[in-house]
Design goal:
three-stranded antiparallel β-sheet; 11 strands; alpha/beta; single chain
Length: 301
Amino acid sequence: MTSTHLPEHATTETQDYDVIVVGGGFGGIYQLRHLRDKGFSVILLEASGGFGGAWSLNRYPGARVDSHAPVYQFTDEYLWKDWNFSQMFPDHEEMRSYFNYVDSKLDLSKDSRFNTKVVSATFDEDERMWTLVSQNDESFRARFVVFATGSTTEPYIPNIPEMDAYRGELVHTARWRDDIDMTGKRVAIIGTGASAVQVVQEAGPVVEKLTVFQRTPNLSLPMHQEYLTEERQAVLKETMPDVAVKCRETFAAIDYEFDPRNGVDTSEEERLALFERLWNQRKVSRRVRQIPSGGLYEGLL
């Protein structure tokens, strides 16, 4: 969007920077640190109350990462050498603790503004400057803007007829409130994606009745969760340099690569043998996925 006029609701007191970063998740934190180290004046604007992106908002029961801990962190040794996850697949609380740790190591907060949701961005063609305005009517100007807003922070709420007439409590997993307790209640969950699968596992044992509405069948595999002992954490630390290198080399920035075989051209016997071998590897878990081209890939966890 381009404009030569500041939005009417913006304040006249505007702060100028070289770069504005919008979003305080992994991407936004990386950009803030990188640009700051290059000598640019930078401010990071985050809509929520803290760092973490989706993990600052995702607080529903069962919320946890779907990638193993070694790859779900910054690969800079300065950050990983003094941090230990307690679980192979950390939950939302531990992820927020991790981002607080990163903040303490990099002193990010001093160049960040929280509870500052950007509601407009205009570009002045004459001055070649962007002006961003927040929901609090604060305005910020910069030559460059980096949007690190991700794709999973804004909730999607389907347009279900007469939903506003529902007399029960409606809540979205992306905006879960800490005061919600499902114990002994009748609960309906719409959807069977990753968030729904996690909530179902937590709700099932405590609710009076649970109903799940599914549009499309989903596939769920055992996570093989592992609580990390000091010995196991030490082993993971030894492998982190190799993991960091692998993450920079692979297609998905993770520590395993594609199996070069084409899934549709592989015999059923070969496919089943691979699936069985991966399924049965518990302590040293592996993953296998089908990719759009029909190929397979796997990797050591």
